[in-house]
Amino acid sequence: MISSNNKQTTLNSELDRYISNNYELLVLYARKYTHSPADLVHHTYIKVREAGFAYINEPMTDYYMRRSIRNNAIRSSFKDDYTYSDTNISEIAETPDNTRRIQLEQVDAVLRRLDYFDRTIFELYLSGQNMKQLCDESAIPKSTVYHTLHRVRTTLKNMLNDIHR
Questions:
Q1: What's the domain range around 151?
Q2: Is the pLDDT of residue 29 over 80?
């Protein structure tokens, strides 16, 4: 005879298997209701486990999870983010904003034109390196480091202004 504790463990492992196999589809479905679909799926999973859901078969579990996702989006803490749309998810085109990426590539192109010393000092500066500590450890005069930083910033500014004209 199987104890109820072993039976519940088996049911939970079946639910875990279902979630693992269908996670992407559930997240895609949850996108219909919220801006944070993965969080909604996780929230629903926790609620379903706490409620002692009894795994019967995959179609029943799929129906129950989708209904639970919808109910959690509408009635629980996710209702503030609720945005229902009849638009098919595959019809929504995501258009990434490439402006920031292009600007970073332009900065990188300008930095590659600099000589090794200037580029290294500026990269250390950008990484958050303490310039005073760098001067002390490397025996490079502070005036040289700060003059280099000023010269690189001015060069970078002028080159980027020329690019955008």
A1: 99-163
A2: yes
